[in-house]
Amino acid sequence: MSKQSGKGMYLVALLLFLGGVGYLTYTGFSENSVYFLNVSEALAAPADQLKAARLFGTVAEDGLTPAEDGLGVRFKLEDKDHAATTLWVEYRGAVPDTFKAGAEVIVEGGVADPGACFQAKTLMTKCPSKYQKENRG
Q1: Which helix or strand (DSSP H or E) is residue 23 part of?
Q2: For the chain, which terminal residue's Cβ has fewer other Cβ atoms within 10 angstroms, N or C?
């Protein structure tokens, strides 16, 4: 009889293990799901998609304002294909050296209220062309 109860214990342990792995997988995917959008897509997206999003575009020439304390920046993010389509972005933190008007950037963060400014938690700039391989012929 002890042989049968031993198999039952292994079956219960296996089910608990698989249930735990399934739960961790589900919560990991749901918490880390971030939409990757350009500016046009972000402006057309439902508000719930912009609570956690990653946007890419170009820093507009006008509206670039450093934070008063020097730690952060406010700027317009232009759609890469439609420069007239813009979204205001506020970022608090260390600004990369390569950040400037005309730079291609990726910002990650969200919008708390519909119609509000995009609050970026991270700001990354695309590497300038001087780091790309040159054609040496």
Answers
A1: helix 2-32
A2: C
DSSP conformational letter for 94: P
Say how far apart CA 94 and CA 67 lie, in whole Å. 11
- In the block, residue with structure tokens 């990650």: 108
The DSSP code for 80 is S
CA 20 to chain centre: 28
The 10s digit of each residue's pLDDT in 35-54 is 788 898 888 888 777 888 89
**Maximal CA-CA distance, the chain:** 81
pTM, entire model: 0.67
> What gap in Å lies between CA 69 and CA 71, rounded to an integer?
6
CA dist., res. 81 & res. 59, Å (int): 13
Q: Which two tokens stand for residue 88?
A: 């205001």
